[in-house]
Design goal:
The complex is a heterodimer of chains A (about 650) and B (about 375). In chain A, helix 1 (about 15-25) runs parallel beside helix 7. Chain A has about 650 residues and is of the alpha/beta class. Helices cover about 35% and strands about 15% of the residues of chain A. Chain A folds into 4 domains: about 5-200 and about 210-235, Rossmann fold (3-Layer(aba) Sandwich), CATH 3.40.50.970; about 240-355, Rossmann fold (3-Layer(aba) Sandwich), CATH 3.40.50.920; about 390-565, 3-Layer(aba) Sandwich (Rossmann fold), CATH 3.40.50; about 580-640, 2-Layer Sandwich (Alpha-Beta Plaits). In chain A, strands 2, 3, 4, 5, 6, 7, 8 and 13 form an 8-stranded mixed sheet that branches. The longest helix of chain A has 20 residues, at about 215-235. With about 375 residues, chain B is an alpha/beta fold. Chain B has 2 domains: about 5-215 and about 265-370, no CATH class; about 215-260, Nuclear Transport Factor 2, Chain: A. In chain B, helix 12 (about 320-345) crosses helix 13. Classes of the chains: A alpha/beta (about 650), B alpha/beta (about 375). The interface between A and B is medium-sized, with 17 and 22 residues.
């Protein structure tokens, strides 16, 4: 049985996302929906794994907006629902959330976005916190793993008390780090759904759910926030540690709490610095803030990415200036801390040490130099790269060749997935635009209409199968309807590979492992009137030929589906089609005629350059025997033999 | 001659609009390919020196060095290049067929050379639809399939590169002036490779004043005719001033004024009209349909012409002085046009300042040609 269902009172080492999932279970959640996206994906995955035992409905939705809609439906019927996504998923869902803020919810509904400061696994470092203010929804931020569980559970109660969605924001270092969590009770609750859409005078929890009349609903929404402030004033998730009259007050939240605590400890300034850790970060509780701001002359706000908390603290401080006196509030706007990227204890220590004029040396002189020397020898620099046997490498290889042969300075409009790495050498730097999910074909649709302004360059869009369903279809419809000359290359690797093979609408099973109806992209594209071709990307010659034909046609919308399961997919993992070898005598190596095409350009990690023999070599541990490299060797020195099954 | 690598080739030739798509860099390696008449660099190669650069007829062609290598004499800049004799010629009765552009001399020489064992294969230019296609012919039938002029620039040298890789060692090559220049640079083994063996036994040069960009020509023609039905193209001698395109249904005459904008920039910097780096060169014979002009340059060329006449593959007669003079004037005019363009674009150099140029000619010769 999953440790997610362990009994109450035991202590378990939970990943932050497991803690969030357990919190939802302890709250009696009934419906869970989300779209995969690092660092959020494990929440839905964990809950899907216990769906049967806990009588849950869990789905991977087609996109984040639909996920919120699915979760909202449950709430409208009185059930508790949870919705998860990565930070930019909130952007996708924002339109519905804006209206949901006005209509309100009934059963507790929690939105748990997981942000990725530094863009470790993202093409952005967007801020979901901003949406709390923008959409006028209460925001909570757990500061450790126990809080991640407890706060989620409380958020459901809060949501029901206020009648609005509550956001609980996590970050990579909380979602993907692990810590001890003391478990609470898993309740036995009756989960019965009924949407009381007819207004019943005796039941305020009845009637249609919409945003009209808008001003009245908006006013009601703002009253909910006022009530939230009252509740937040006494919230146990807002804590203070330190002297009564600190020299410096640190105001922080989320994973930054851990950095701040560590920094204060390492500097040994516990008697000089107070730490106000906030769990309820929007709207801020003014009385609590006022009390602590008054106690210190200078304040440092520690948070990641933009100065969201800092600005909100400054607004309150200015409103209360007569009461608390003028304050020096530091943070990002004055450069004490960076406005981009993740924070860490070192950055916080540097800021604190500077403000307190306390020297700090993390290590002895010469340590950094010695460490760098050791590091250089032990850890060779590595570029981001597609895995050995990745079908994207083969697809992009053919795409790159076809565009060069076509010779009209064509380019690829990229999309979000592993193939986003086509901006790097591993994808031959083929992608020249890369933005949001589904934007590849959207941008291509635009490029295709610029012929009247003299643009002769062909633009090709790439997107993965999950992305196709998520957001590419409307753009494809747009391209067809507006008679754009556009080509979409659908890199169909049979799963949401980048985030861990979550199912998507193209697959015959759902998040809970039940049978599902697979939607065929071929039929969708054909029904729109696009010409569709399907090709195995490992057949480089045919793929290139087909791409060249598509480029030459440029007559309306074409779709080419390059279909091959991901090398790490359950289907292909631990299977080997070919045993690969290199004829070292035949290998041209660095000579004119090859110049290490396989290890310098194609760069599959399964191929390595053997400087001793001055020839290519197969890394038997890494090679998965896809056989593609045999097709690229100019002299046939890379051999493939059928692998024993 | 200076030999650099693919980066310089890409920068100086392809990115500068000077690539004629002759195929000299194609199929030597996985990096350069020709598709529909245009040579593409598929991926970057960082070698400091490569055969691609060494063989390219548009980079660092030192005409004086080439003349001293092939003719054991300095480059003189004569109108028609060094030659022993210029004749009128046509195929003899031993060669049957009816698809020849002029006198069928190129086909006759290649078929004869194949049958006589003087060459083991012929590097020729065929057609794939509207696009010229590099071919390797190993029998007379395959030679005849390539007969007829192609007015679009052709990647013929790719077939030479493939043939060498496949082990052919006695190749006949029918080459335009740029292609013949590439063949000669290749034969000079500028990279001084130890295992190099000259694979070329015969170069039959083709007169060429300019060629056309294959893609632009195809695009132009496809708006007027069904490209699949094109059977033959011809540029009749002056004063016709037209490109004649014959399909199986109609004959289209296009004024050269409409065609000339499709001449690649690379042709404007070519000083060679009669394929001076060949054993023999063949062109049209103005005013005598069914005949060619034949320039015999080398001993190899003289020998094969004599043998082909004996074997009744070739017939010759004297060339009227008027024709020779006209040809020489045209040859001189092309050299002057080329040098003017090269000077204007600062693409010619003789002072060895370390910069890279497509063409190097002794300054006194350049001055004479420009003044002449």
């Amino acid at each position: 049985m999953s440790q997610l269902l362990d009994p109450q009172a035991v202590t378990r080492l939970y990943m932050g996302n497991e803690a969030i999932a357990r919190g939802a279970l302890e709250a009696g959640v009934a419906v869970v929906a989300g779209y995969p996206g690092t660092p959020s994906s494990e929440i839905v995955q964990n809950l899907a794994s216990v769906a049967r035992e806990r009588n849950l409905y869990v789905e991977w939705s087609v996109n984040e907006k639909v996920a919120v809609e699915v979760a909202a439906a449950a709430s409208f019927t009185g059930l508790r629902s949870l919705c998860t996504m990565k930070q930019n998923g909130v952007d996708v869902a924002a339109d519905f959330l804006l209206h949901l803020g006005l209509s309100g919810v009934r059963g507790g509904m929690v939105l748990a976005p997981c942000d990725d400061p530094g863009g470790l696994s993202s093409a952005n470092e967007g801020e979901s916190r901003q949406f709390a203010r923008l959409l006028e929804l209460p925001l909570l931020e757990p500061g450790d793993f126990q809080e991640a569980k407890d706060m989620i559970k409380w958020a459901f109660d809060l949501s029901e008390e206020l009648g609005c969605v509550v956001m609980v924001r996590s970050v990579t270092r909380l979602s993907h780090a692990s810590g001890d969590v003391i478990l609470g009770e898993l309740p036995s609750v009756e989960k019965k759904a009924n949407f009381k859409h007819r207004p019943l005078p005796q039941d305020p929890q009845s009637g249609p759910m919409h945003s009209f009349p808008v001003p009245q609903k908006h006013q009601a929404q703002q009253r909910k926030l006022e009530r939230a402030v009252e509740i937040f004033e006494a919230s146990p998730f807002n804590t203070y540690e330190g002297p009564e009259q600190p020299e410096l007050l640190v105001v922080t939240s989320s994973a930054c709490t851990l950095y701040a605590r560590e920094a204060i400890d390492l500097l040994g300034v516990q008697d000089r610095v107070g730490l106000l850790k906030l769990g309820t970060t929007w709207p801020l509780p003014p009385k609590l803030l006022g009390k602590h701001l008054k106690s210190a002359g200078q304040i440092l706000v520690i948070e990641e990415v933009i100065p969201f908390l800092e600005e909100n603290v400054k607004i309150l401080a200015s409103e209360m200036v007569l009461e608390i006196g003028p304050k020096k509030i530091m943070g990002k706007r004055d450069g004490q801390l960076p406005m981009v990227g993740e924070l860490n204890p070192d950055l916080v220590i540097a800021a604190l040490a500077g403000i307190l004029d306390t020297p700090y040396q993390a290590s002895s002189a010469g340590y950094a130099e010695a460490a760098a020397q050791v590091g250089e020898a032990g850890a060779p620099p590595r570029e981001l790269a597609f895995c050995a046997g990745c079908p994207h490498r083969a697809s992009l290889w053919s795409l790159s060749r076809a565009l060069e042969l076509d010779g009209r300075d064509g380019f690829v409009c990229g999309d979000v997935g592993c193939y986003s790495m086509a901006i790097f050498p591993t994808g031959f730097q083929l992608t020249k635009t890369l933005h949001a999910m589904g934007s590849g074909i959207g941008v291509t649709s635009g490029f295709g209409k610029l012929e009247q302004f003299g643009m002769g360059q062909p633009a090709l869009a790439i997107c993965g199968d999950s992305t196709f369903f998520h957001a590419a279809i409307p753009a494809l419809v747009n391209a067809v309807h507006n008679q754009t000359n556009a080509t979409l290359v659908l890199l169909d690797n049979s799963g949401t590979a980048m985030t861990g093979f979550q199912p998507h609408p193209g697959l015959p099973y759902d998040a809970m492992g039940n049978e599902a109806i697979p939607i065929d992209p071929v039929k969708i594209c054909e029904s729109l009137g696009a010409k569709v071709r399907i090709q195995d990307p490992f057949d480089l010659e045919q793929t290139e030929k087909c791409l060249l034909e598509l480029l030459a046609e440029r007559d309306g919308v074409n779709v080419m589906i390059l279909r091959k399961p991901c090398a790490l997919s359950p289907e292909r993992k631990k299977t080997k089609d070919f045993e690969m070898s290199v004829d070292k005598q035949a290998c041209l190596g660095e000579s004119c005629g090859c110049n290490r095409l396989c290890t310098r350009v194609f760069k599959c990690p399964g191929l390595v350059w053997d400087s001793t023999s001055q020839s290519a070599s197969i890394d038997e541990v890494v090679c998965i025997g896809c056989g593609v490299c045999a097709s690229i060797c100019p002299v046939g020195a890379i051999k493939k033999a059928e692998a024993a099954k | 001659m200076k030999v650099l690598g693919p980066r310089e080739l890409f920068e100086d030739v392809q990115n500068s609009g000077l690539c004629i798509g002759c195929g000299a860099c194609v199929d030597l390696c996985p990096y350069f390919r020709n598709y529909k008449g245009k040579t593409a660099r598929l991926f970057t190669c960082n070698l400091p020196q490569g055969r691609c650069y060494a063989h390219c007829p548009k980079c660092e062609v030192d005409l004086d060095q080439m003349a001293r290598y092939f003719w054991q004499a300095p480059y003189e800049g004569s109108a028609l290049g060094p030659y022993r004799e210029i004749l009128a010629a046509r195929r003899g009765p031993a060669l049957e067929g009816d698809s020849f552009q002029g006198g069928g001399v190129v086909s006759a020489l290649m078929v004869y050379a194949l049958q006589a064992g003087l060459i083991d294969a012929a590097v020729l230019t065929g057609s794939q639809g509207m696009f010229p296609d590099a071919r390797l012919a190993v029998n007379p039938q395959e030679v005849l399939e390539c007969s007829g002029s192609k007015y679009a620039a052709a990647p013929t040298m790719a077939a030479l590169n493939r043939a060498v890789r496949d082990g052919y060692g006695l190749l006949g090559v029918a080459a335009t002036p740029c292609q013949a220049t590439a063949v000669s640079k290749m034969r000079m083994n500028l990279l001084e490779q130890n295992d190099f063996k000259d694979p070329v036994a015969l170069v039959v040069g083709l007169f060429c004043n300019w060629s056309l960009d294959a893609r632009r020509l195809a695009q132009f023609l496809c708006q007027r005719i069904d490209l699949q039905r094109v059977r033959r193209m011809d540029i009749p001698p002056p004063p016709a001033g037209t490109l004649v395109v014959e399909t199986d249904r109609e004959t289209l005459e296009i004024p050269l004024d409409q065609i000339k904008p499709m001449i690649p920039e690379a042709c404007n910097i070519c000083p060679d009209m009669t394929a001076e780096w060949a054993d023999v060169s063949v062109g049209m014979f103005e005013g005598r349909p069914g005949w060619n002009t034949l320039v015999i340059r080398s001993q190899v060329g003289a020998d094969i012409v004599t043998a082909a006449i004996e074997a009744k593959f070739l017939e010759t007669s004297s060339l009227p002085a008027e024709n020779l003079n006209r040809l020489a004037r045209a040859g001189t005019a092309k050299k002057k046009r080329c040098l003017t363009t090269l000077r204007q674009r600062q693409l010619i150099n003789h002072d060895g300042d370390g910069a890279r140029y497509p063409l190097r000619i002794p300054e006194d010769i350049a001055k004479r040609l420009l003044d002449g």
